[in-house]
Amino acid sequence: MESGQISDYGFLADGRTAALVDASGSVNWWCPGRFDAPSVFGRLLDDGAGHWSIRPEVDFTVERSYLKDTLVLRTVFRTAQGEVALTDALAFEPGSRGHDIGMHPPQVLVRSVQGLSGAVPMRVHYRPRFEYGRTIAYLVEREDMLEAIAGAARLTFRSSVRLACGDDGDAAATFTVRAGRTHNFSLGYAPTYDAPLPEVPDADQTIADTVAGWRSWTGEHEYQGLYAEEVRRSGLVVQGMTYRPSGAVVASVTTSLPEKLGGDRNYDYRYVWVRDFSHTLRALWRSACFDEVRRQFAWLGRAMGRIGDQPVPIMYGVLGERDLTEHRLDQLGGYRDSPPVVTGNDAWRQRQNDIYGAAMDAAWLMRDQLEPFDPDVYHLLRVLADQAEQDWKQPDAGMWEERGIQHHHVSSKVECWVALDRAVRFGDQLGGPQDLARWTAARDEVRAAILERGWSDRLQSYTGIFDSDELDASVLVMPLVGFLRADDPRMRSTVRAVERGLSHDGLLRRWDGDPAGFVICSFWLVSCLALGGERDRAHELFRDLAGRVNDLGLFAEQIDQQTGEQLGNFPQAFSHIGLINAAGVLTDVEQDPTLRNCGMPPAHFTPTRR
């Protein structure tokens, strides 16, 4: 069995970085150190860019699952000779529990092979390639370890099976796993200089401790609502995509997985977008991740720093870095021969006016924790409101980050309205009478412009750009941020038009010509239907969408409307955040009859701790 699709991958995480393991037992992506570091295993993007496989030497079938309430992966290989279980984990620091997990991980990938029945011939193939496949390391045997050093990275490999080193920087071995026997493998990473040798702990104890760490974290987060199993899994995925030292949630853990096979819309998503911020905080709040909510907002304030007259950056690195200049990696052929492969993302240079609303809405959600305002928070929120007042008339790149062109995007105007609306709601905590009068006047002006210039009489729908007749799924955020009631006649008509023009089998494209369904847009549709009174349809669509995950409960960014194949970077935080928030809206509508047919989501959440 060979992996060929994005959905074939399982996802491991340790609070600093992530690894992807395909269904045949090959680690084809690992960037040790941090999510956006250079890879040491990159076969995901080119066959020659490194991997570490453990698999039967004979024909096999596979059944996979995560150990309950963890991101520790168990793959069972079934062969004519017997069955073998492979358990994979990125290790937590020993003894870490609850909100301490992932703060200081040892940077160790552990793999354990256990015989379940019979005697199965196995093969392990270790092929590290540093700097996205550019560098082949010398493999050096040192007592019971195999060391690989190249440039700035050093790997130490320990195995209960002796591997033979080849002449091309590879090592391999064959072995037989019998029922009741276990063979363990550990791989540790450390910088080449100014760091001790990588830790290579006992695999059995490390896996058990990592399982306990994940379960202790899960035990502190009790979501009380509908679709609890799906929400718990998505909450774990979002936690796995969190850079624990700063609290920042990356959009994805991969780069350059294509939106369309053979296309060139390949981007690096291992960064943090301000636009995603209120959606992320809402999802964390929904899934009762209170500590993560506070840390996320604190990270945003530090990343932005003191804002002047220049546009606010739209994205950052996990520690708040601003310069994310894009570079092509021409040595890599790309996922299934779909170049280019890039690191960095030039969207950091764009103007995106929706970020004002995203940040202000996050502050509004967090108001109980923020009040009274610290001086830096007070300054940040005032500047965001003032910039929304100043910039809302400016064209921008929009939510979908158009390159080389700017338009008056309706969703960006809506988010400017959100920023001004939340500033007015904060009242005298944020501004004096003159400030509130300015923000109120600008808010009303933005709203009037959207209602007039964002509406198409021909389509009987709000559209993606002022004065256009082009449908765009981004306008579905209007009821979700309180701009319009979901049962408003024009909003109802918009939902019908968007669904009719952009949806196929429940999957919603962003615009006409978008190559695939965009997962979070489909969940926005669920929320709009629920808030608009179409409760049964909303539940039916939610269940259909939730069933489109891979066998491990993971979403990519997009799903092909015809084939059902997952596309784009993987796993995608936005997709899982969309699921969590849609489940929350469905819960609200079921629990609070006043929300039915009124179209306004709760302004504030007060979930209970366990």
From TrEMBL:
Ranges where the GH15-like domain occurs: 237-583
Gene3D superfamilies xrefs: 1.50.10.10
SUPFAM superfamilies: Six-hairpin glycosidases
Pfam families found in the cross-reference section: Glyco_hydro_15, TREH_N
Top-level taxonomic group: Bacteria
Domain Trehalase-like N-terminal residues, every copy: 5-159
Database matches in PANTHER family: TREHALASE
Protein name, entry field: Glucan 1,4-alpha-glucosidase
Organism placement in taxonomy: Bacteria, Bacillati, Actinomycetota, Actinomycetes, Micromonosporales
